[in-house]
């Protein structure tokens, strides 16, 4: 006996060495398989049969071994597996490995029979193994049942029609699609009917009232391959899964094992349908699968649990002073807030209701805040206050009040003063001429505050001290920074006009209120009037200003910023320049009129600083170099809408004729002013005449204007030298024939 045990150990060791050899090099598989088949046959010991079944399972499922070699080895291994399977001695591990090996062998043998119909022995062995496995499916232990499910899945996959490519028949998967219709061993109707019956038997696990979670999960995992590779039966499988509700598989009493099983079935079914929709988002049953996934996620095992149907613990009211009942109900107590003790001595109402230890918060006088602001603060705070903390605070104040009442009731009342007879009554007084002892004065001073009743609010109104006055330089810097921020806002945001009001609500016309639309034009109006009207009467003429080192006023800073703002995009911001110059001209006229009305006859002549001429010329000098012939409309609009055209302005316009390409721009602009601005007509005609005389390229265009508006101009009349030359030429021509004729 000991010798046989030693031989068994040696044999197992040799077999393991052979296994390690083929795992290292798959080329040795044919030799090793043919060598170990006699050792692991039906007449060998159980340990050897178990090892042999496991080795054959590894061999026919190994991806390192080619399919052609597997087909050759399958015919020799089938006989050994059949003989082992038919033994009366049933070893669970051996049976499990045989079923796994049969699942790997069935597609190989099926393809071998298709190509070699004369090998009927191999198909007979495979059919016998298949029938034996199907008989053991329902009666075998769970490990064998799980392997049987995999075997049935392989049989159904092989015995149904799959996709084929006639150009490469060797690459087609094994299915009924590659079986010839006149095959001698394989009958297509019989095989297809058998596959349909096995599929129904496989799906019957979803219709049973109480299925084992292991079998359900194994079936779901095996069906994923059939859905992906066999479209003809895919919808049938999906409909069977959609009718499966894992929560119905639970039966009372619901134990933790039952809960875990139901959850595992829900998770496996959900994962299967999610993978199907990922591979084929346009699947015809995608919407139903999505709905079923949502139902699985919402389903809960507690719906069938009787314990969940019991009524919950009652919610008993508590007074906030005692947690005994709450502790008996095993409920979680709310967090307790810290209540500071009351100070010794007399207590005021403020101290009674103060539950915080923050000195700054408790000493704040709320009377300083207006009532409307308090309402805006208190209402949202009360809406968000914690109910538990609020109840504890009210209970704390109530307890304080009850304690104070008990203390006052326990204190003895002071005895009433005995009524003295009128005869014995003598008023106590201290003569004013007698000095009171110093000790008595100190006692009176120290006893005075103690006799006073405590004030309800210890602090009075608090007034912030006045800030130190700003110097002129600081005020100027603050003003410049404010103006700079407004301009930055205009440049960065580009606020569009406010179209919130309808046309009927907008007050248009001369009676409209400037700057009331809160758009970009309103801000520009505000800035221009700050620069022009705000410092009116506060400025002095620059000629009389002796302090040359003094910084320019804020109005000039705003003007400078406006000037730069317009030049950054003068074509798009020409309306800003027009608005600004109109404000400057209007302010100059108002200041001149006001100064004239305030000046008496005997006063010296007073001067008013004028800004229109200065900034209009500077603005023209800023953008004239950048104008071209395409800016005619913009430039004419600017000249037509500024309030006054002066001689310096016409000279600036005439300077455009220096550039031959801008002669038409110059002449057309001056012609527009001549036609539509009569007060400036003579100045513009003079400018045209000067252009005609100075720039030769402008004469064709300027002569037309002068011929219409100033035909008597000497500029367009012929020169005297030219007239004499013409006269002489004509005279000589007329006199020549006479001379010759004479």
UniProtKB/TrEMBL annotation:
This is Symplekin/Pta1 N-terminal domain-containing protein. The lineage of its organism: Eukaryota, Fungi, Dikarya, Ascomycota, Pezizomycotina. Gene3D superfamilies: Leucine-rich Repeat Variant. It is found in: Nucleus. Residues 418-427 have a biased composition (Acidic residues). Residues 301-326, 405-451, 713-742 are annotated as: Disordered. GO terms for biological process: mRNA processing. Its main location: nucleus. Keywords: mRNA processing, Nucleus. InterPro entries: ARM-like (IPR011989), Symplekin/Pta1 (IPR021850), Symplekin/Pta1_N (IPR032460). Residues 714-742 have a biased composition (Polar residues). Residues 92-310 form the Symplekin/Pta1 N-terminal domain. GO terms for cellular component: mRNA cleavage and polyadenylation specificity factor complex. It holds the Pfam family SYMPK_PTA1_N. It comes from the Eukaryota.
């Amino acid at each position: 006996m000991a010798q046989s045990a030693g031989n068994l150990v040696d044999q197992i060791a040799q077999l393991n060495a052979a296994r390690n050899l083929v795992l290292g090099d798959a080329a040795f598989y044919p030799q090793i398989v043919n060598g170990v088949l006699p050792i692991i046959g039906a007449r060998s010991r159980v340990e050897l049969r178990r090892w042999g079944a496991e080795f054959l399972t590894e061999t026919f499922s190994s991806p390192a071994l080619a399919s052609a070699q597997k087909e050759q080895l399958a015919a020799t291994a089938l006989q050994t597996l059949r003989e082992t399977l038919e033994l009366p001695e049933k070893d669970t591990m051996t049976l499990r490995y045989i079923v796994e090996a049969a699942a790997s062998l069935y597609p190989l043998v099926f393809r071998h029979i298709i190509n070699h119909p004369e090998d009927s022995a191999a198909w007979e062995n495979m059919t016998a193994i298949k029938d034996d496995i199907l008989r053991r499916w329902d009666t075998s232990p769970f490990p064998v049942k799980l392997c049987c499910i995999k075997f049935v899945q392989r049989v159904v996959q092989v015995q149904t029609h799959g996709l084929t490519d006639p150009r490469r028949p060797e690459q087609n998967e094994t299915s009924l699609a590659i079986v010839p219709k006149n095959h001698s061993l394989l009958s297509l109707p019989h095989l297809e009917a058998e596959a349909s019956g096995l599929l129904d038997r496989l799906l019957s696990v979803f219709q049973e009232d109480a299925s084992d979670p292991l079998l359900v999960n194994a079936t779901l995992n095996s069906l994923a391959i059939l859905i992906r590779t066999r479209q003809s039966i895919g919808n049938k499988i999906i409909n069977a899964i959609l009718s499966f509700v894992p929560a119905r598989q639970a039966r009372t009493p619901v134990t933790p094992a039952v809960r875990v099983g139901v959850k595992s079935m829900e998770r496996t079914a959900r994962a299967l349908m999610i993978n199907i929709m990922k591979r084929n988002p346009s699947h015809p049953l995608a919407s139903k699968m999505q709905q079923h996934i949502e139902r699985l996620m919402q389903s809960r095992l507690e719906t069938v649990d009787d314990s969940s149907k019991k009524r919950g613990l009652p919610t008993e009211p508590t007074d906030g002073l005692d947690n005994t009942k709450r502790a008996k109900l095993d409920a979680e107590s709310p967090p307790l807030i810290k209540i500071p003790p009351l100070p010794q001595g007399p207590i005021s109402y403020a101290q009674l209701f103060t539950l915080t230890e923050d000195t700054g918060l408790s000493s704040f006088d709320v009377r300083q805040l207006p009532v409307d602001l308090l309402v805006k603060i208190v209402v949202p705070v009360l809406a968000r206050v914690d109910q538990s903390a609020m109840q504890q605070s009210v209970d704390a104040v109530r307890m304080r009040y009850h304690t104070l009442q008990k203390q006052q009731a326990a204190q003895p009342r002071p005895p009433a003063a005995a009524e003295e007879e009128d005869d014995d009554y003598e008023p106590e007084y201290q003569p004013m001429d007698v000095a009171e002892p110093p000790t008595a004065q100190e006692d009176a001073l120290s006893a005075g505050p103690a006799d006073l009743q405590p004030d309800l609010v210890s602090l009075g109104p608090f007034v912030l001290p006045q800030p130190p006055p700003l110097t002129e330089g600081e005020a100027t810097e603050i003003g410049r920074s404010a103006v700079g921020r407004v301009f930055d806002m205009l440049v960065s945001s580009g606020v569009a006009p406010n179209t919130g009001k309808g046309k009927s609500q907008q007050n248009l016309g001369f009676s409209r209120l400037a700057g009331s639309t809160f758009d970009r034009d309103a801000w520009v109006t505000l800035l221009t009037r700050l620069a022009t009207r705000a410092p009116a009467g506060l400025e002095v003429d620059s000629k009389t200003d002796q302090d040359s080192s003094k910084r320019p006023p804020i109005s000039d800073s705003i003007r400078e910023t406006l000037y730069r703002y317009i030049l950054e995009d003068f074509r798009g911001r020409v309306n800003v320049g027009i608005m600004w110059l109109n404000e400057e001209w209007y302010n100059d006229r108002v200041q001149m009129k006001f100064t004239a009305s305030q000046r008496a006859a005997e006063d010296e002549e007073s001067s008013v600083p004028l800004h229109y001429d200065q900034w209009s010329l500077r603005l023209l000098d800023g953008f004239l170099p950048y104008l071209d012939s395409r800016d005619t409309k913009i430039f004419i609009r600017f000249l037509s809408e500024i309030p006054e055209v002066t001689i310096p302005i016409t000279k600036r316009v005439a300077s455009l004729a220096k550039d031959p390409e801008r002669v038409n721009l110059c002449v057309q602009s001056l012609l527009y002013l001549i036609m539509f601005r009569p007060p400036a007509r003579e100045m513009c005609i003079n400018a045209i005449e000067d252009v005609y005389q100075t720039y030769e390229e402008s004469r064709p265009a300027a002569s037309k204007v002068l011929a219409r508006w100033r035909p008597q101009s000497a500029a367009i009349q012929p020169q005297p030298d030219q007239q004499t030359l013409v006269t002489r030429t004509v005279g000589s021509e007329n006199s020549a024939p006479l001379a010759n004729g004479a």
